[in-house]
Amino acid sequence: MSDRLLVLVRHGQSDWNLKNLFTGWKDPDLTEQGIAEAKDAGRKLKAQGLTFDVAFTSVLTRAQHTLKLMLAEIGQTGLPTTNNLALNERDYGDLSGLNKDDARKKWGEDQVLIWRRSYDVPPPGGESLKDTLARTLPYYVQEILPGVLRGQRTLISAHGNSLRALIMVLEKLSPEQILKRELATGAPVIYRLNADSTVASKVDLAA
């Protein structure tokens, strides 16, 4: 029987996470803490005895850097890796690069909360979580899932909202449930799938 292993990891803390800025498709790198989180994620995966056949990540530096650091810890630096913008973070549009407190002053706390925490209301010029799902899910179904079901042990290093989109489908969550799901930076979530792509088991390695 094949393992049908799928591991999701949100990138380590980025420079803009630290500065409380809306990041989206902007491309800051990891902080020192983020580097430590990524290395720790790799050590946790190694401690589980996990190795991988393929990896996927976004086109953004913070996710790619996290993946590189994890693979170095596991001892798989040459792993075949695909970068695709389908796995990018949600695009925050006009909010990108703004301090979250400044955004609240400009648009009001209630409006910013709606943009951040509603399922289908996008910020100006940006994407809602529903839009992110519409971008991420087809890529997962067409390019990632078939390999997992063939037994390719797969590691995905991506972002809070693109991973939420996948988790929503994997765990059959409602829009309300997925909005409440927080993903820690640098904390692997290990899924093993049934042959019909449903989840057989889940282990969350958040500290």
UniProtKB/TrEMBL annotation:
Q: Which GO terms describe its molecular function?
A: phosphoglycerate mutase activity
Residues engaged in binding substrate: 10-17, 23-24, 62, 89-92, 100, 116-117, 160-161
Give GO terms for biological process. Answer: gluconeogenesis; glycolytic process
Pathway of this protein?
A: Carbohydrate degradation; glycolysis; pyruvate from D-glyceraldehyde 3-phosphate: step 3/5
Q: Where is this site: Transition state stabilizer?
A: H159
- Key words, A-Z: Gluconeogenesis, Glycolysis, Isomerase
The positions flagged as active site in the entry are H11, E89
Q: Transmembrane segments in this chain: where?
A: none
The reactions it catalyses are: (2R)-2-phosphoglycerate = (2R)-3-phosphoglycerate
Under Enzyme Commission nomenclature, its number is 5.4.2.11
NCBIfam families assigned: pgm_1, PRK01295.1
How does this protein assemble? Homodimer.
Q: What does this protein do?
A: Catalyzes the interconversion of 2-phosphoglycerate and 3-phosphoglycerate.
The record's similarity note reads:
Belongs to the phosphoglycerate mutase family. BPG-dependent PGAM subfamily.
UniProt-recorded name of the protein: 2,3-bisphosphoglycerate-dependent phosphoglycerate mutase
Highest classification ranks of the organism: Bacteria, Pseudomonadati, Pseudomonadota, Alphaproteobacteria, Hyphomicrobiales
**Gene name per UniProt:** gpmA_1
